[in-house]
Amino acid sequence: MTARERAPSSPTRDRRASIVPPMPGQRVVMRGIAASPGIATGRAVVVDRRRSHVPRRHIGAPEVEREAERLRAAAMASEADLKLIQTRLLEDASGEHSSILDAHLLIVRDEMLLGGARRLIRDELINAEWALKRTVERIKELFDRNSDDYFRERRSDVDFVGDRILRHLTGDRATLSVDRQSIVVAHDLSPADTATLSRQPVIGLVLDVGSRTSHTAIMARALELPAVVATGDATAMIAADDFVIVDGLRGEVVVSPTDEEIERADDKGRRYVSFSRGLLGRRDEPATTLDGERLTLRANLELPAEAAIAVDHGADGVGLYRTEFLFIDRDEPPGEDEQAQLYADVLRVVAPREVTMRTFDLGGDKFATAIRTPRTLRRSLGLRGIRLALAHSDLLRTQLIAILRAATEVPQCRLRVMFPMVASIKELDAAKAVFAEARAVVERRGLAPPEVPLGVMIEVPSAAIMAPQLGTRCDFFSVGTNDLVQYTLAIDRINEEMAHLSSPLDPAVLRMLAMTLDAARAVDIPCAVCGEAAADPTCVPVLVGLGARELSMHPAAIPLVREVVRRLDARRAREVAYQCLLSSSSDEAEEIVRSAFGAELADVFGGMDEIES
Ligand code: PEP
Ligand code: MG
């Protein structure tokens, strides 16, 4: 389809002006989250995977066994589907992202889901479909209490798996299928549905809901499918066969664009493809600045399954493994054996590269039902991070024992352990004492764990201020800019309405960073940066300029950050960082960076608008 074959467009309409769907051919611009980069232009296929019909029926006691058996069979059939999709994904997307479906395979076997539904069949005498639906809703309610992206994503995972089992129960097995080159527009898609798109002529994806970190977004990136998510109402605004531009770089969707817009979009898409191929092709090159400063780029992990993704993106190891996600969404904390096995898996996949495990960082926005803490104490300024762990030192000890056991199981591993949200020397000393106890327990069992460097996360101002002293009592620092920004600027990190005020380029935050990096240099210990700032191309020159040589970020960001580093002159970055420290606001600091590196990083800063063909 060429630009000239389209019907002429009528005047532009902003989607926010009205919820009434546009007239055919009316130009509409929608904004969402840029979830997977690239540009697609083509006709829309609108799919609705939202609702499967749920038959509800009371049953007699003699039917309980039969309903439980139907449920079991549907779960097994769903498991078989997921395994098949995973195998196909291994063939289509060079394998690494198939691990995303591991989460769904775990859910399909999970006792919380199936056991819960079985109990409802038996206790309330209702049919399998109804029992399953109610159990899914109950689990989703637990996730709803949290506004973190991670929980929203787990909520969708449970929904997707529940829906798949339900389709088996009801016999509604229609798979998503697209028969001509199209842009898929949907309310939401499961990662499994997205994976099935890889064998179909789909060129782009637009969703009503979702987030940058949703597994569907990760899958879209794996399949190199340009995607915009969280558009709000794309399924209401876009009709089948509408011509659409999906700009996965800007997070913009244009419905019924003009001919010139289509030509510009196609041109931008071609430039992006050649740029990104170049980046991934260079993933084995060192992250070395023009003047020879070598950086280490590591990955942040939330789930063990992401370790393989990190390695695939050329990570020099794992700089932050957020172990707390093992503690969330369960009634009892994970036991020592379970933890030891999962940690050993991660160490094995990443070895011989280094893995930095952070002890569980709960409280604030990360809430675990397994750890019973009064709501009033769980807040950002309450019992969280190491403070919470020390209040439950038995759990911390068990975790450290599991970590040390894992390290003995994987002799080729390189392991570091760090403590989150340390706010005082007393807390560090207490955490180290628990580590020593854990080590003694492991040694008493006849094991000989390796020496493990112990680090402190610098993410509250008191830790940055006390860095010179903390640095003499630990082996490394890792700066968590997400929380450091929150606590330095007094801006709640999960409040979307405050987000525009929050920036790691704020000179107050930069001064905290500079103090920490200087303190680490003075006592000759490494200092990494592992918050989101490490993945932000505008912040990277400043971090390099302040002296950071280890950055850790979500795996997908590594190729781009490597590229940014390779185009920088570290001496020039130092001058620019100094100017930023003296600036009066984050806006001014950002302007300083953009004008200083506007020539070298024009394509990165300009979102491909500046890149040459
Ligand atoms: C941070 O605060 O920057 C950090 C890396 O920790 P988390 O985002 O897990 O709180
Ligand atoms: Mg933090």
Give a verbal description of the structure:
By secondary structure, the protein is an alpha/beta fold. Among the domains are: 4-44 and 198-279, Glucose Oxidase, domain 1 (3-Layer(bba) Sandwich), CATH 3.50.30; 61-170, Enzyme I, Chain A, domain 2. It has 23 helices and 18 strands. The strands form 2 sheets. The chain has a 9-stranded mixed beta sheet. Helix 1 (64-92) crosses helix 5 (149-170).
In short:
With 613 residues, the protein is an alpha/beta fold. It contains 23 helices and 18 strands. The longest helix has 29 residues, at 64-92.
Structural class of the helix and strand makeup?
A: alpha/beta
CATH superfamily of the domain at 4-44 and 198-279: Phosphohistidine domain
Query: For the largest beta sheet, what order do the strands appear in spatially?
Result: 1-2-9-8-4-5-6-7-3
Distance between the termini: 22 Å
Largest sheet: 9 strands, mixed
Q: What radius of gyration results from the CA coordinates?
A: 25 Å
CATH architecture of the domain at 4-44 and 198-279: 3-Layer(bba) Sandwich
- What is the count of helical runs? 23
- Give the proportion of residues in helices: 40-55%
Shape: globular
What is the CATH C-level name of the domain at 4-44 and 198-279? Alpha Beta
Mean pLDDT: 85
Low-confidence segments: 1-18
Number of strands: 18
Structure ligands? phosphoenolpyruvate, magnesium ion
Strand content: 5-15%
CATH topology label of the domain at 4-44 and 198-279: Glucose Oxidase, domain 1
